[in-house]
Design brief:
Layout (H helix, E strand, L loop, with lengths): L16 H15 L5 H7 L1 H17 L3 H21 L4 H12 L11 H18 L1
Length: 131
Amino acid sequence: PAFCHLHTLTCWGEPPGLKNLELTLQRRIHEAPKGSYTKRLFDDAELLKNKLVEEAQELAEADTKQHVAEELADVLYFAMVRAAALGVSLDDAAAELDKRAHKVTRRKGDAKTERIAAADKILNTTKNTTS
């Protein structure tokens, strides 16, 4: 959608931050430069899955403000690649969060042991192939 006379979101150029990343990813799906890592992720679902798990683990283990910010940026990037590949926008995710905020009942919130086991398997496989 265009909101200014330049047929862009704003008259001041590209939006900053996550919205800019989202727009870049949407363009990369169709017109990635040669050797684009993002394009490689779009084309290799297994690599993208492994990177998501790896970066989430690194975020879980980060213990300083700077390290958490770095790992969060990585997780957001890989999550947004996944979302863009399936046509999911930041607005879609925000709408889901809003919907959840209004739920009357919630599940207990404990970690799903089967997902933890699956992540461990991915991480162990990745470690063995990079060692």
